[in-house]
Structures are given as C-alpha cells and as structure tokens.
Amino acid sequence: MLPWLISGILLLAAFSLFLLWRRARAAEAEAEIAATRAERERQEAQRAAQREAAQLTALNAVQPEPVILLASDRTVLHLNPAASALFGARAEAGQSLIVVTRSVELDELAAHALEGGEDLDRQVTLNGLPYRARAVAAADARGEATGAVLALQDLSTVQQLGRARRDFIANISHELRTPLTSIRLVLDSLLSGAALDSAEVNSALEKIETEVLALEQMAQELLDLAQIESGQALVRLVPTPVAQLVAETVERLAPQAAHKRQTVSVEAPPDLVALADSAQVNRALGNLLHNAIKFTPPEGQVWVRARPSDGDVLIEVADTGPGIPPEDLPRVFERFFRGDRARAGGGTGLGLAIAKHVVEAHGGRIWVESEGRSGRGATFRFTLLSGER
Hints:
single chain; Heat Shock Protein 90; 2 domains; five-stranded antiparallel sheet
C-alpha cells in the first residue's frame, strides 16, 4: 500500500512540475510575443518619425517664406531655412520667440494665438521690409494649446507690383490719350470744311497714320506680354542664321531710323547659327532696336552686333542716346517700369519685359550696361544657344 501511495505522490508532483513548466514556457512565449510586438511598434514609430522628419525637410525645401514652430510657452522649436536667413545667426531653436525675432509684435501675436484669440493676422516690419504675419495654434484633445505655427509673407514684392500696376494704368491712360487727342484734332480739321490743299491733307493723313501705329504698338505689346505670361506663346527652337534674324529686324525698323536720319550699323557673321524661334527673337530684338532708335537723337548712331561667346551666341544693341541712370539699371526689365523721362519718352514700359521673357524662354540671359551719360547711350546684350553644338 505504501509503495503505491509514494508512487502516486511522486506522479502528482511530477505532473505539477510539468504544469508549472508549461505555464513558464507559455509565459516566456507570451513575453517573447510581447517583446516582438513592442519592437515592431518601436520600429514602426521610428519609421514614422523618419517619415515625418523627411516630410518636414521637404516642406522646408519648398516653402520659400519664413515659418517658425513654437511650443506653448513661445519657445522656438524649429525654424525653416527662410526664417533662419531672415533672423540671422541668433535664430536658433530652444530660445524664446522674442529673443530670436526681436519683434514685440510677433511675440504678442503668438501669445494671442496661444490664448485662443481671434484676428491672428498682422502686418509687421522686419529688417526694414513689410511682412504679413499669421499665427495658428495647435491644440490637444482637451482643446488646450500645445504650440503654434507662425508664418510670414514678404509683402515688398506685392507692394512693388501694386505700385507698378498703378503706374501702368496711369501711363497707359496718358499714352492712349495723347494719340487719340492728336487724331481727334486732325480729324476735326479735315471735317471742318476748311479749304485744305493736297499737301495739307497728306500731312494730316500722315499724322493720323503715325498715331495709329503708336496705338498698334501699345496694343501689340500688351497682347505679347499676356500670351507669354500665360504660356500660350510656344517657343520652337531650330537652327537659324543669326545674320538673317538681324537683317529682318533692321529692315523692319529702318524707316524709323531713316526718319531721324540715324545710321544703323550691323555686324553679324554669315555663318553664325543660333537655336531660335525666329518670330520670338525678332520680337525681342525689335523691342531693343526700337528703343535704341527712339531714344537716340537725330543723326545719331545705332549698332546691332552678333558674335560667338563662350559657346553661345551674343547679340547686342547699342546707341548714342542719353543712357540710363545707374539707379534705374536694376529695374529696366520690370513690367510697366519706365525710368527717367529723358529716356522714357513715352511707351507702356513692356517692351524690355517682353524681351526678357523671350530670351529666358530660349535658355539665354539678357542684361544692360550704361554709364548714364548723354551721348554714351546704353548697350543691351542677350545670349542664345548656339545652333552648332
């Protein structure tokens, strides 16, 4: 009896140990599964953080305007490259907003946003330039502010464009009124019934023709710029003899030079070839030559030259007019810009802007040089891709 009891006890103990071992193995397996799941979640969180960091880097790369991320206490968490460039060496994460920006207005705007205020748009001046500042607060599930984003927009270009458009409206109104008034006066003379000989009639008709051509020029410049900026003016680059381009443009404007008894000298090698859209380049070169003739006094000199330069084709138009003041040189290619009246002499201020668009669409560049002295004139140069590559 006793041996059987002892055997039973031993068997029960062995079974209990087996159950304990099974439970331990199950606990180990569960722990391994939990550890694997935790590691997987950690790796997924790490990948998510890397994705967010990459997205933030990409956002920084494509965001040209300054952006600052703030904590709830207005500590700077992050600045994009534009913000770092705006605020200089002192712009570092970890500092307070007012230390980074030195702007009470921005600090007050951020505080207002974090407090849940409205009207989160301000215009401030930073480094002497006007900016639009906007703050947006970030909140948690309970609605408490956890931080804010402060975005800035440079308004100097917008204001400059607004001034340019206002100037354009004033200029175009004046330019339209002048020829229309002249045409009206001449027509009144012709319709008045006064006895006019044939010479007087021809002179009146020539005057009307001149003013109509001026109106056509303005209308064409407005249409050209609208087509170019809308992308409707397609550029087809084909190997084109440069001498032919120059000759066509000079021939078209020769009557204007002849009327002022000007000499137009041409230098263009017959074997020089550029990749060009003939109609577009004629338009750009024609605008430059038209200006040169317009601003050069009677019996003056105008040059149109073309030559190879650093693997490209260089074309230049020079004149003996009054030149361009140094302060106007950086702006001559702006839309609607008209500088010194001594050189402006009327016009829409679109011709050079059109020339710039055309040249850049050809993969070239355009610039101007002038001493701003009467008689020394101005020299406009632009490049085209060589057709001999």
